[in-house]
Amino acid sequence: DGAPGNVVQLEVFMEAQCPDTSRYGFGRERQYGSRRGRDMCRFVRSQLMPAWKALSSTGRVDWQLVPFGKARCVERSDGDFDCTCQHGPNECILNQLMNCVIQAIQDPDRYMETIECIQGKPNLDSAIEKCIAPSQSLSVNQMQDCATGPNGRKLLALAGAKTASLSPRLTFVPWIRLNGDRVVDALYDLPGNLCKLLEPAPLACS
Fold it and tell me: Where do the domains of the chain lie, and which CATH numbers do they carry?
């Protein structure tokens, strides 16, 4: 609704794949275990996207997505990177694709739905066909080259450096920060937690 007020910084440290299905509800963090991956996907669909759809028009949330999670990147002598990801090589490629999309578009209002689409896809071919090809803002060839090449690995390593700088350090995915502070409850009610920090609250919060 464009009313004046403060701006809240939202950072979501995430990863691209769900090793399991997404049909179950949230457990609390101590109960997650093997459900962690499916809840990463569930968070994107049941919390992040509704929050974005409700609040993006206010211009009062600084949306930052950092696709890396519990990956690891090591720089090689030639300047390229070797990266490994929690759920295997496909997740690294999809994390890289997400970072490529974010770099190419830059505006969250234009890339958020593409990131949601990539989330949980089984492999690059599926993500390209269903998420990149329909986009008018992205080139299939450029995104495929980026996701599988040195630029994608460099972008993933940069996301890793940002993730490594967290204090306290990331032990759980998704890791959500509001105005620089980790907020565990945002995993279960992101719109409500954003609205608490928006002063005055926009109409979308009422």
Answer: 8-193+200-205 (3.40.30.10)
